[in-house]
């Protein structure tokens, strides 16, 4: 079979994203309410800001907005992580970034599976933040052995999913019929099951060690624990949640509200308290478990290493000044401290560009095309920008923030889930479990920026400096 006969991986990813959203709406109706709130908020923002609406239309972000979402799952073994990597590869997704959440008291390390090229991201920006439980952090040797044995007994993939993964790897793709079947079969890995694979006593032992450990070990699969639509105004969504029967977390994670958003801001509603049937329970008896919630995100500009260093320094300063973990009790004070501290980060795209704090996509304007052939054009980017021959836009941050991810996890696991782990990052172990290296997200942004400058050079017939 030739490549032209294969289903498009980007379209397959878009189909999978839609199918997962429908499944999660059925499982967690409050997520559907959240989608409606986000859609309404985005519509109002675009209606009230014609310039923003035109900009998003011109850059293709309008089409992405309604489809943009990410999910999150947690797995327990290296084999599960490695096979998930193969599953996501069928849909054109690669592991990008390494995130160690143990410093924040969450016993996992993670990566994000996503598309890596800007063209593929424009078709479907769907991402899955995927965490691997660090079993070595379970202090009780007997409990650690029990958890390992419980995980080894399960298979989180259907037999047909594994067959289709192998077929895709062997043939180089899937035909349209097999691609549709793959989406249906792969979705089963992420489905919720209200029956546990352990007794209530064993669940409680795992839960006392850490609630996330119980969530990973005690069930037959890595149920999707949240899906996240993208909003243009996360503060408005946060404020409106209670009016829609949704209880939000106290603090929006990430940078403060800005005129020019940077990186990623996230909030969520509290995890559902759900009835679970455990092994050995009498008829009619149930236990309870909290894991699944809804999240909203607002994405801003991707920062360069210089910009990210400034962001990290300012965030550390704000948290040090606060003197305690951000919570409902100090949310207003934390927001004030955050806004004051981040006044040191330029809130202007041109300043961010000239100071090399963020990555940008450059594109030729109609005026630039009209000027080609009428005389020599400048070979200097700033001169082309000044003449209106080239314009730019900030690249959207496609990835995640460890501190924010840990904050979301902890707010939905409960304060009693926080722990202290005197261990360092284990990126080499994560790569060994995954079976490959994770990609560096900063390299991907730099490549996208460089490609955009190359296109400008070719379209204008000038030689631009591409570094």
Short note summarizing the structure:
This protein is of the alpha+beta class and 467 residues long. The protein is built from 20 helices and 12 strands. Helix 8 runs antiparallel to helix 9.
Spell out the blueprint of helices and strands.
Blueprint: H1 9-27, H2 29-48, H3 50-59, H4 61-67, E1 69-75, H5 78-90, E2 94-100, E3 108-114, H6 118-123, E4 127-133, H7 141-152, H8 159-171, H9 176-187, E5 195-199, H10 200-209, H11 211-217, E6 226-229, H12 234-240, E7 264-268, E8 273-279, E9 287-290, E10 295-299, H13 305-322, H14 331-341, H15 349-354, E11 360-364, H16 366-371, H17 381-386, E12 390-394, H18 402-413, H19 427-434, H20 441-460
Parallel strand pairs: 1-4, 5-8
Antiparallel strand pairs: 1-6, 2-3, 3-4, 7-10, 8-9, 11-12
Helix pairs in contact: 1-2, 1-9, 2-3, 5-8, 5-19, 8-9, 10-11, 13-14
Oligomer: single chain
N- to C-terminal separation? 40 Å
* Strand residue content: 5-15%
Number of helices: 20
CATH architecture of the largest domain: Roll
The main β sheet shows up as: 5 strands, mixed
Number of domains: 3
Strand ordering within the main sheet: 2-3-4-1-6
Radius of gyration: 23 Å
Question: How many beta-strand segments?
Answer: 12
CATH class of the largest domain: Alpha Beta
CATH H level of the largest domain: which superfamily? Answer: Uncharacterised protein PF07063, DUF1338
Mean pLDDT: 88
Q: What gross morphology would you assign?
A: globular
Contiguous runs where pLDDT drops below 50 for at least 5 residues = none
Structural class: alpha+beta
Helix content: 40-55%
CATH topology type of the largest domain: 2,3-Dihydroxybiphenyl 1,2-Dioxygenase, domain 1
